[in-house]
Queue: 2 jobs
Job 1
Amino acid sequence: MTTDNIVFLNIIFLLLAGGVPYFIILEKSNKFSAKAIFIVSGFLLLTGVLLSFYTDREYMTSFVLVSFFTALYSIYRATQTTNFYKLGYYFIFINAPFFILFEEHGAFYSLSLLVSLLGIYAIASFYEKHYGSANYLYVRGITLATPLVGIHITVYLITIGLYPPLPNSLFFLTHIFNSEANALWLVIVITLYAGNFLVSMRVLERSIFGKKNPNIHYVDLNFKEKITHFAIIVSLVLLSIYGMKEILTWA
Amino acid sequence: MEKLTLLIPGIPIIIAFLLFFINKKELIPKISIVLSSMIALLGLYGTYYVMSNDTQIIGFNGLLVYNELSAILVPYVAILGLVIRKYATKYMWDEAGYKRFFILLNFIFASIYLLVMSNNLIVLALAWQLMSVGLYLLVSFNVGSKTAVKNARWTMYIHKGADFVFLLAVILTYQTFGSFDLLVLKEKWLIMSQSPVTDPMVLTVGLLYLLAAMMKSAIVPFHIWLPYTSEAPTPVSGLMHAGVVNVGGILLNKMAYLLILTPMVLNIAFVVGLFTAIFASMLMLVVSDIKRSLGYSTVGQMGYMIMEIGLGAFSLAIYHLIVHGIFKASLFLESGSIIKYARKDPNIPERLSHKTFLEENTKFKSSKTFKLIAVFTIVPVVAFVGIKMLLAPEFFGFNAAIVILAFAWLTGTQLFLSFFKVSKFDSIKAIFGIVSSFILVLFTYEFIGLSLEHFLYGHDSLLFYKAATLNVTLVSALVVLSFVMIVGWLFIYKQHFKTPVSTKEKANKSKWSFYKLLVKEGYYFEIFNSSKKGKL
């Protein structure tokens, strides 16, 4: 591949994976709600993932650095929000450096990220429908009030928080065991490993734990919603099986 | 048939999956207990197979192994698991989240079995992390309590740190030694141990494993998660203190052959273990909360465990963790019945320690008693040396023996004094009874310890002692031992003959500062809060 092609592909992937913080502009626009930004960024990442299956990847350090700074800013923004939609797209931007840095493993990592974010999207829609908005701060005590919703939030956030045997962690581990560490690699891997963990644990603590709010009429998942979440969980399990196979082949 | 043993880590996952679909509350513990009994039976069969055939059961392409270490630990964990499940059946009945509790319990047991039986560093890394998340969800089980959730967060931070350090160690191990397979690595490490190793990467890898073990085993300064997680349900506390916290010792035993190459890591383990054992035991005595006191007691015991590893006594650490685990689990699980009796009888629990050591203490202030104490301080050392000479004379070839001797003396003397005071009989008959039972207990302990050492490591155990040998001469080691004995004896003497402190008397300033340091738990939270406010 020529240098021009590598640069071009890196720019494309940088944009698709959320390596540049375009959400800043979209958030200021009145035309885009948080839900819309989530859908746009998710769709772009999916395009990037699909595209990466058909192209040879070779990352350039400068592009990784750009996405890394975007990720740092996104971590900061993620700690400021209590809205599931916003949180969802911040996670896409937080994980952009992994997509670029991990090359061929990055596609599967981002795919499993997308599936877990689909779960977050379904939860956000559920909150919007039953509690008026996707804000989780005042809808506390989910574990005791609506255990099924609690279980799903836990699974999605633990997946994003990079815990095995869930797929994000397995693809992450496959990459880190496979690659040669250098200073940039170490900084990015450590920061984002901690970033994903801290943000997801913060949300987990604030959403599912706590006492029930007596002013809220809690509603658990209905049959249709159960089917949706079941499908997402099955997808995560399938990805986990694939991820396990990948990592154990390497072992 | 024996390969079935390797299915053990999967059984709790199947139980958890089954429980998810069960709505009848009565069935939840029944299914959990019946299927867990299968694990215990399989574990015992595996142990019998390994012992009788003097072999290991390897499967899943070499990813899992049922070896000597598994043969000891799996039945222990399985039986502990059965007791905890049985206990939780009624204890947790009225708690919100009964099903969630049993599901989480099974997940954490799966991770413990996987960790013990893993023969591959990647599988070990997966189990290591799975345990962190399982522990977090169990510690925060009481979701309505702010303190429980806050303490769970702290636990999670420290365990995530341990996860990261462990991952780093695994990556570096692969880059340095070229394999993830622990059996392959063991052979490599054994060959490398025949000549001095100077590669700094080997030292780094050893240090990282030690650091990860310290974090998970609550060694100072990573201890703070353990004493503060007592708000978790009692069965969880039992599991934490008897099982989860021991994983540091298990990891270091799995890495024992690597640590032969890094004597410095063993020496560091000895120092941090010793410090933790002393510091946490002192904190245990001064904290006002009984559950935190138990927490610090466990931290102290973990310090002993790491110290034993630092001395090269790897199998002793395994023995210690099992004995301590059984003891601590029974303490936690018995607490409910003591509360029940206390509700019926206001005099229970009796203030036994106060009655024995303070109110009745004046009776023993005789010169005869003093002479007896002086004898008691020597008897433990004589008994220990005699038994060791009889069972394993080669032990005295390493100066680790001196340190173990010092601790045998300290523990033995304390034990003697406690028995003596509690017995309240100042007679030759009572003394003879105490001395003979002490020798019997010590002999049994040593015999089991040595049998375990031979079973786990055979003649390789001498390699560990050799690697852990501190660079001091026998003479200086004996001087240190004598110093410890004299100071200890003086301390005990003073304690026994001290005059009661008058309330009008002003406390010594340095003593008061030291007491404050202990009561404030080493100013741990003050330092943390100051750094949070930007004062540091």
Job 2
Amino acid sequence: MGVTVIATESLSKRFPRVTALDRLSVDIGPGVTGLVGANGAGKSTLIKILLGLSPATEGRAEVLGLDVATKGADIRERVGYMPEHDCLPPDVSATEFVVHMARMSGLPPTAARERTADTLRHVGLYEERYRPIGGYSTGMKQRVKLAQALVHDPQLVFLDEPTNGLDPVGRDEMLGLIRRVHTDFGISVLVTSHLLGELERTCDHVVVIDGGKLLRSSSTTDFTQTTTTLAIEVTDTDDHPDGTRAVRDALHARGVTVEDGSGLPGAGHVLLLTAAGEETYDLVRDVIADLGLGLVRMEQRRHHISEVFKDGDAARKEAVGHGN
Amino acid sequence: MATEQPTATAAGDQTRIHNIGYRSYDGPRLGRAYARRSLYSQSLRGAYGLGRSAKSKVLPMLLFVVMCLPAGIMVAVAVATKANELPLDYTRYAIVLQAVISLYVAAQAPQSVSRDLRFKTVPLYFSRPIETSDYVRAKYAALASALFILTAAPLLVLYVGALLAELDFADQTEGFAQGLVSVALLSLLFAGLGLVVASVTPRRGFGIAAVIAVLTITYGAVSTLQAIADVQDSSGAVVWIGLFSPITLIDGVQSAFLGATSAFPGGTGPSNAEGVVYVLVTLGLIAGAYGLLMRRYKKVGL
């Protein structure tokens, strides 16, 4: 990735009763990064520290190369923030509100108005932007919240639970919009969620924290593509009444580890094996042909991120459970 | 909208091609001081309902007119009767119309700060290049300025009227200047008290009631006690009791140092030494209000 957008070094935040962050060290590059954790895992605390609004108990952090302890105002000029909770006054229009927020970020009056019109259009608010926000749907309000975070053209935005309260369609639209913030606008994104599943589709990189500790930080391609798993299903014949078992034994004999696809549709008839490369496909084809069996299917299975954590304890599994 | 380029098409008026490409912003970013000024001007305009709904303009504008109307009448009378002085001193004007001022503070202080708390807009402000002190100063300065406009405008009407009536220029200018100092102090004091009370509650209704209570109940209690003390011939007590309500504080300061006649029962305001205490208490309250607001908003944060 080269450039580091956010870097923390044994960052800790302790309150009298709880430790919100516990020696968190993480490097985040440009692109869309998901910050996943259960409620209370320390996501919002981390954002507050990164905005320079709350001092860390120990450790240090940099955003866009600026130290959060001393350069808070400079960071906030270059960064956008969309809070989790409602933050919109109902009696003003989206345009008035976003213009005001643009000026609060330091944009001159004319630029504030132009950028507001542009940004509201980009997030998908058109004629309704002149009406008071009080009459908006949840989805529209989320768009206004996103617009105020983008209006000053930041280099990085923090989006705290942007899909909260949205229906499945609204959720997909918001995730698509977040993706565009990076691909079309060139703005890096740190998006939090307690749902791992929805971030998998949107993010380049996922950081998982639990109880203020780093659980894992890696790119979503690492999560889902480091190992290609093949699922194969075969027919039975008179020679081999249990075709599945025959294939497994034959593959075992050639030194390939095969698992039962328990928990998958067609359990007992599905075999899972790790594909090392092209030769694995050839091997499977040859073995099945030699046995005279019919190949019903052979497909690549993409891991779900949640499976990466499935061997964790029950509480953790719940914490990062697959959303949607 | 510079990016929407209407193009000439056969369909004509309704058809537009929207250039939806994202444009980045390379222009100036004016930073913290500019953001603070923007918040100040937005809050000051808001205090008179400008940039807000028509409904929210009604009360502040009405109170402004009510404040200026008596001044207009006095000037008309002075000009018509060729009087050789104005019927009311510059310094007395705000004291006489204190109910209108209190009502204005009660309505506009919650409007200025309770809304941001109630709709949780405060975190958005602090996610921008400003600090807590910028928010507090902008809000405080805006309400104090709004109050100064409310209280100084009628004095200006009186002054212009007095000059038109060809009253003594030096006399009038001195009185006008003293009046301005007095209402400036009053604006700072009332704005501070109003904002501290309003910043405690996100509910606007409670805020209005609480501000009215603080301003009028203290005045009622203090003037009652002063009247009793006066009847019992203890004029010393009258002066010290006056320290306990905002409007009698201002009255005391201006009768000691700004040549005003006191509205205290018995008509004797504080002496110069006592006046110093009045000034110190007034400045202490203003500083205290600022300190309390800072503390309050340090906590609200994100």
